[in-house]
Amino acid sequence: MVRTREQARAAREAKLDELHERLTGAVEQLVSGDDWRRALTFAAQFRARSFSNTLLIWAQHGAAYEAGRVSEPMPSYVAGYRQWQGLGRQVQKGQPGYMIFAPVTGRFASSNLTDAESWRRLGKGEKPRPGEVVRSKMIAVRPAYVWDSSQTSGDPIPEPPAPKLLEGEAPAGLWDGLSELVEERGFEVLRVPHEGMIQGANGMTDYTAKTVTVRQNMDPAAQVKTLAHELGHVLMHGPDQEDARQHRGIGEVEAESVALMIGAAHHMDTSGYTIPYVSTWAARVDGKEPVEIVKATGERVRKTASTILDQLDTAQVTDGTPPGLDREARQHDQPARTQVTHEQRTSARPAAGRVEPLPEPEPAALSPGLVRGL
Ligand SMILES: [Zn+2]
């Protein structure tokens, strides 16, 4: 059967619709604070991918487990069909992949980098004119597939490290690493003997005095968790937000969620993190639907936590990328930069048919027109 271009386009559109629907369904499952906590704990283990894609992988792996197609309730490493082949492993027959969003990029040329209007899209195979610079840019999303390691067979995969922490113990080097990041932002880290000195709180960020204060009369794990929470405030919030009352709830959720992801990435027990019911902080604001607010919040948190984790020199859980994927391939799993040079991306162009998971798109950031314009 020969499929026309229109049929292929329609099929892709239908899959994208299905994917958006599936994602909405997964977001709507996040009701209690505990649901949110579990979603972020999962996202911490697959943090190289967008928050939306982690939800999609979570939901589809869960369904595969329920159906008896995979043996473990949690995936370990996920990668594209060819990435697995590159690691000497083959996707087993009858194992459907997990559908996620992948970016569609276009090539753009310009002779005047300072003029945003000057970029013109290059046609297929079109060469830039002399003096023009070429950039690849994400213009839309398309469906792509990934498989968990348990759906593949072949060369063995090294076991992920699983260091255990004692109750109340802080991961080695985490306090110092987080303190450095707070100080890099021009804030001083202070420790006080008890909560009476900071209005009964575990920690406090003062944007005017430029201080982050943590009380010392808690176990080391609780202190480092509090510092991660305050670092979340330092990176994501500012003095203006302190007054914006309707955003205060979401600010606390963001800071606590960043701390949660940092903790989860260090094997810390995340059951003690306090997140209110999702409906209490993701209420409809400024015409934005709760589902959109949940997705945007999750992605903001994921980005902030990943940025922090990348800068720490601590032993962390894997980010879901199989060990041994070459650097080039790993980069494709990094969050999408909006613009990368064409040269960096040439090898990342997917071949027709099988689609590899390339840089993570953020569907929310795309206008529906662009997505539909595929
Ligand atoms: Zn706070």
What does this structure look like?
- This is Serine/arginine repetitive matrix protein 2.
- Residues 35-105 form the N-terminal domain.
- Residues 325-346 have a biased composition (Basic and acidic residues).
- Residues 314-374 are annotated as: Disordered.
- InterPro entries: ArdC_N, IrrE_HExxH.
- The chain has 374 residues and is of the alpha+beta class.
- The chain has two domains: 51-160 and 319-372, no CATH class; 174-311, no CATH class.
- It has twelve helices and ten strands.
- The strands form three sheets. Strands 1, 3, 4, 5 and 10 form a five-stranded antiparallel β-sheet that branches.
- Strand 8 (203-206) and strand 9 (211-215) form a beta hairpin.
- The radius of gyration is 22 Å and the shape is globular.
- It starts with a helix and ends with a helix.
- The model is unreliable at 327-374 (pLDDT under 50).
- The chain binds zinc ion.
- Zinc ion is lined by residues 229, 233, 252, 255.
Name the descriptors.
single chain, 374 residues, alpha+beta, 2 domains, five-stranded antiparallel sheet, 40% helix, binds zinc ion, ArdC_N, IrrE_HExxH
In short:
It holds the Pfam family ArdcN. With 374 residues, this protein is an alpha+beta fold.
Helix content: 25-40%
How many helix segments? 12
Mean pLDDT: 85
**Beta strand count:** 10
Strand content: 5-15%
What small molecules are bound in this structure? zinc ion
Structural class call reads alpha+beta
The count of domains is 2
Taking pLDDT < 50 over at least 5 consecutive residues as the criterion, the unreliable ranges are 327-374
Shape: globular
Indicate the radius of gyration in whole angstroms.
Answer: 22 Å
Pfam families: ArdcN (PF08401), Peptidase_M78 (PF06114)
InterPro entries: ArdC_N, IrrE_HExxH
Protein name: Serine/arginine repetitive matrix protein 2
Organism: Brachybacterium sacelli
